[in-house]
Design brief:
globular, 8-stranded mixed beta sheet, alpha/beta, single chain, 36% helix
Length: 236
């Protein structure tokens, strides 16, 4: 397995659609793609099923999958090269560095598809819908840019709904049973490797679509932490 990972890490270094910790990219993505099409990100993309699926579904959109694990990126990047999908690319970096790679209002939408729900209390700040990350997304999204969360974790779903409520975010659409309630939304039909595993064993897919306000998010993170603690005590 270690040899396989090493081989994939070496392979992506020669892939034209993979950038690893690139410098000078803010404001340059349309030059990279050779067009002026809007940019959509899949963060923590894993094998890139959504980046690839969205690119095929929307040829007039540039899709970028972002992840740190190059051996996973390899799967989606190779598929794009083999199928000549030219409006998809992959960025290898940490998610908490995302604002270093895009200019203000350079991204139209963000997809979070089955991210690690970080269930341990000590890791709540690592949830990709925590205000810590939302403030980074706010730096690169167009005004009113959409954020989509698709997860099998009711914990992450409820946490995100709490953040939306407390921080005054704009909720556009939501469901705790997306395949039953939102069958009209074509993008939700894309399936990922981690969805197939049904890690949360919830037997349901949860979906949220929301956007951030134009103003800075309120500095109430301690209040969020206290609210979560209170809710846990009420349940316990």
């Amino acid at each position: 397995m270690a040899q396989k990972k090493l081989k994939r890490f070496n392979a992506i270094k020669g892939f034209s659609n993979v950038l690893e910790y690139p410098e000078g990219m803010p404001g340059k993505w349309n030059d990279f793609f050779g067009n002026r099409n809007p940019i959509v990100l899949e963060l923590a993309c894993g094998k890139g099923e959504y980046a690839v699926g969205l690119a095929k579904m929307h040829p007039s959109v540039n899709c970028i999958g972002v992840d740190l694990k190059g051996n996973r990126i390899y799967i989606g990047a190779r598929k794009c090269l083999e199928e000549k999908i030219e409006n998809a690319a992959f960025l290898r970096t940490q998610i908490d560095m995302i604002s270093a790679y895009f200019a203000k209002a350079e991204v139209r939408e963000i997809w979070l598809t089955f991210p690690d729900p970080q269930l341990r209390k000590s890791r709540i700040k690592k949830r990709l819908t925590h205000p810590k990350f939302l403030r980074l997304y706010q730096q690169i999204l167009v005004p009113g840019g959409l954020i989509h969360l698709k997860t099998d974790s009711p914990v992450l779903y409820d946490f995100t709904r709490l953040v939306i409520d407390m921080y005054g975010l704009i909720l556009h659409r939501h469901s705790d049973n997306a395949y039953a309630d939102l069958s009209d939304k074509e993008e939700l039909q894309i399936r990922t490797h981690y969805e197939a595993l049904d890690i949360a064993r919830s037997k349901r897919v949860h979906y949220l679509c929301f956007s951030l306000p134009d103003s800075d998010l309120p500095q109430i993170d301690p209040a969020l932490k206290q609210r979560i603690k209170q809710d846990e005590q009420a349940i316990g």
